């Protein structure tokens, strides 16, 4: 690959041939070189169980090859055909309420259904056999957006098998689930049903009588979906020894633990559909999370919309310049390909008003097409400069699905605590400071980081405390928060002051919770910040500095923010300004705030090429024009010309500067 991959989902099987000609004329105008084909093509690739028909896909692949496009070839298991569900009702999921679904929608196969698995694998096998040696196929794309859960009897059986592997024997399992509580001691594996509305749950999927059971079920479901991916991948590998195999992830997607998937993806990719137009930090977090799946290797944005989504209640179009800004933001955070969903708007069904490179008119003189083409032209001009470049991060943000699940399944102290909110609050502070950041799992090697930030690390497993201790021992900093270090890998409370107590030099004696309307002001660094929801009553050891204290209630004057050496603790949920103040103190101790850290809405991200060249991306996400000092001397690769450090950079809204530093 000699440039950033550009293109996206292409479904010519849904269109007559004459439209294909117009598609390719448009692709040439827009600099589109990469086409993802076959994602939802099962029904026409296999019209009946005993009949395959590759005529149309042959033509699609031939045409793409003839036009010199790179192909991402998908297996179509993201949406099953009606004949499959009709013949094998077990392939349809049973939902949380215990209802067996019938045919409809997509992304809904039972991951434990042997018939679904057999048929999906057989088709993957045929596809790989047929197209495995087509040189234009640069990647395989298994299924689509794996997700959701099933509670059917097959999954129940699969769960019990999974439990046998995890726990070995029932004594271990009963201990792990603390089943002595409420007389739940299991004496036979067959007694264990999937935890749903008919068994352990009440008030929905987050409310369970036994957190350990539900936590294991989430892990099992994530693994069951992964098993489907792996089975198809194995079928592909039998014919395709080298071409990378991936699937499109969804960023901060709660049901699937992407860290459990990561080793099995040849490269990571994800679909970037931010929920609103004020999400640059959240997108940066998701880019970082996906990059962190493969130790910082470049990833792909497999999908983004050129203009609007259709699935939300209200679906605004991307404002002028936003498509370009967000595309470059992807590259700034490590994307080596930026692709769209999709090339041509669907004529009917639920995505008929979803944006596309070509809208229903098929015109190329629209605003959206012009913006798509402009980005395509920039990527073409830039060539391979950014490919393979990495983020030189000295700051790590830990993300952990087990903690996410455990804290949100917890009865007490406060249901208002949502893991993504706390994670994004701490991330936003790091992002605002333009700190070069890796977003990594708790199992990551931490030896390259000077600062490790672990918001809401509720569940602690493995040797993480030792690795944190090693960071501190060599002068690094550790920052963690309220409700961290509370439970072990089975979601049982530690019978001590917790695995971080010694490092932090404190213990949490009580945990108060209040409604969102109750604010307890926390004094820190000469200012007061609003704390809400959860207030830990901290007993600090001698030698632990109390940097922030509560201002109200019977614990007024007691510690809310502490530091022992470089180990920081925030025992409550601070407002954004409070989080930013703490995070900034930690970063400043190591000089790790990035360039333009005090300019709101201006993002600076760095990548270093395999040759050691520094690339600096400066992005204005704000609504106003700002003039900032150029952070380094270099060549402006998009605007042209040389810039000296300190030169005035005038950044209009959505401005992007890409500096090759000298
Ligand atoms: C997802 C899917 C696509 C499409 C888009 C629409 O990302 O993978 O098939 O439905 O959403 O936003
Ligand atoms: Zn199932």
CATH architecture of the largest domain: Alpha-Beta Barrel
Main sheet: strands, sense, barrel:
11 strands, mixed
Helix/strand-derived category reads alpha/beta
CATH class of the largest domain: Alpha Beta
Question: Which consecutive residue ranges, at least 5 long each, have pLDDT under 50?
Answer: none
By CATH, the superfamily of the largest domain comes out as Glycosidases
Global shape: globular
Describe the structure.
The protein is an alpha/beta fold and 662 residues long. The protein contains 17 helices and 27 strands. Strands 10, 11, 12, 13, 14, 15, 16, 17, 18, 19 and 20 form an eleven-stranded mixed beta sheet that branches. Helix 15 (464-473) links the parallel strand 12 (451-454) and strand 13 (477-481). Bound molecules: alpha-D-galactopyranose and zinc ion (ZN). The site of zinc ion has 7 residues, from helix 6.
What keywords describe this structure?
single chain, 662 residues, alpha/beta, TIM Barrel, Rossmann fold, 11-stranded mixed β-sheet, 9-stranded parallel β-sheet, 17 helices, globular, binds alpha-D-galactopyranose, binds zinc ion
Task: Describe this structure in a few short sentences.
The chain is of the alpha/beta class. Helices cover 30% and strands 21% of the residues. The strands form 4 sheets. Strands 10, 11, 12, 13, 14, 15, 16, 17, 18, 19 and 20 form an 11-stranded mixed sheet that branches. Strands 5-4-3-2-1-9-8-7-6 form a 9-stranded parallel sheet, with helices on one face.
């Amino acid at each position: 690959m000699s440039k950033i991959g550009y293109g996206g989902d292409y479904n010519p099987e849904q269109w007559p041939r004459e439209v294909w000609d117009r598609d390719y004329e448009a692709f040439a105008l827009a600099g589109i070189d990469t086409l993802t084909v076959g994602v939802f093509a099962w029904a026409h690739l296999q019209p009946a169980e005993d009949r395959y028909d590759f005529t149309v896909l042959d033509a699609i692949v031939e045409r793409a090859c003839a036009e010199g496009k790179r192909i991402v070839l998908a297996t179509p298991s993201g949406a099953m055909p009606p004949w499959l569900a009709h013949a094998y009702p077990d392939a349809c999921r049973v939902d949380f309420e215990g209802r067996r679904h019938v045919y409809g929608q997509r992304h809904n196969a039972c991951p434990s259904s042997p018939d679904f698995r057999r048929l999906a694998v057989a088709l993957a096998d045929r596809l790989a056999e047929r197209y495995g040696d087509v040189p234009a196929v640069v990647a395989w794309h298994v299924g689509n957006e794996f997700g959701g859960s099933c509670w059917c009897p097959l999954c129940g059986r699969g769960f019990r098998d999974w439990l046998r592997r995890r726990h070995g024997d029932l004594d271990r399992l009963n201990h792990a689930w603390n089943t002595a509580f409420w007389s739940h001691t299991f004496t036979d594996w067959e007694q264990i049903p999937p935890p749903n509305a008919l068994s352990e749950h009440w008030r929905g999927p987050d409310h369970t009588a036994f957190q350990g059971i539900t936590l294991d079920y989430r892990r099992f479901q994530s693994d069951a979906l992964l098993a489907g991916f792996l089975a198809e991948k194995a079928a592909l590998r039998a014919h395709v020894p080298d071409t990378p195999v991936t699937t499109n992830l969804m960023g901060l997607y709660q049901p699937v633990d992407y860290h459990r998937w990561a080793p099995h993806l040849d490269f990571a990719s994800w679909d970037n559909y931010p929920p609103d137009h004020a999400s640059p930090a959240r997108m940066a977090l998701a880019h970082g999370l996906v990059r962190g799946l493969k130790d910082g290797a470049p990833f792909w944005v497999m999908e983004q919309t050129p203009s609007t989504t259709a699935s939300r209640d209200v679906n605004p179009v991307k404002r002028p310049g936003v498509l370009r800004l967000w595309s470059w933001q992807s590259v700034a955070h490590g994307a080596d390909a930026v692709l769209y969903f999709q090339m041509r708007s669907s004529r009917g069904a639920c995505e008929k008003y979803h944006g596309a490179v070509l809208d229903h008119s098929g015109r190329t003189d629209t605003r959206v097409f012009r913006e798509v083409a402009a980005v395509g032209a920039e990527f073409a001009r830039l060539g391979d400069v950014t490919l393979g470049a990495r983020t030189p991060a000295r700051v790590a943000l830990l993300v952990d699905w087990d903690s996410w699940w455990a804290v949100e399944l917890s009865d007490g102290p406060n249901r208002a605590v949502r893991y993504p909110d706390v994670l994004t609050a701490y991330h936003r502070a790091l992002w605002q400071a333009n700190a070069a950041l890796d977003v990594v799992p708790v199992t990551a090697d931490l030896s390259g980081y000077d600062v490790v930030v672990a918001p809401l690390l509720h569940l602690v497993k493995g040797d993480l405390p030792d690795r944190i201790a090693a960071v501190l021992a060599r002068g690094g900093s550790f920052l963690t928060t309220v409700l961290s270090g509370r439970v072990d890998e089975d979601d049982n409370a530690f019978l001590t002051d917790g695995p971080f107590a010694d490092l932090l030099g404190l213990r949490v004696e009580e945990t108060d919770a209040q409604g969102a309307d109750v604010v307890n002001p926390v004094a820190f660094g000469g200012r007061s910040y609003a704390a809400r929801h959860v207030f830990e009553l901290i007993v600090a050891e001698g030698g632990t500095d109390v940097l922030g204290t509560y201002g109200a209630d019977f614990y007024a004057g007691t510690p809310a923010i502490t530091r022992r050496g470089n180990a920081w603790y925030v025992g409550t949920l601070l407002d954004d300004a409070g989080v930013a103040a703490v995070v900034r103190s930690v970063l400043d101790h190591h000089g790790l705030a990035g360039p333009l850290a005090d300019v709101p809405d201006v993002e600076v991200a760095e990548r270093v090429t395999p040759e050691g060249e520094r690339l600096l991306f400066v992005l204005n996400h704000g609504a106003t024009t700002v003039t900032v000092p150029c952070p380094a001397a270099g060549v402006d690769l998009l605007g042209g010309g040389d810039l000296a450090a300190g030169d005035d950079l005038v950044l209009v809204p959505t401005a992007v500067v890409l500096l090759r530093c000298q």
